[in-house]
Amino acid sequence: MPIFDFHCEACGRTFELLMRTDPPACPHCGSSHVAKQVSAPHAPGRSKEILASARRQAAREGHFSHYARSEKPRV
User: What's the predicted TM-score (pTM) here?
Assistant: First the structure.
């Protein structure tokens, strides 16, 4: 079940819920007058481990465009 953002028109609060077949009710005031909001997707994380892994894979495949000039191997 996907998670959606909702805005309660009665109390003005925004909340997230798993979308089921039933129309959701506000967990704060219990009102059924809620509007589904457009959620912004989260960008993937850019941790040092992810970058290091991507650079190792690029080096294995011969793609050095991901490296800074100082990081490129000298040929």
Answer: 0.48
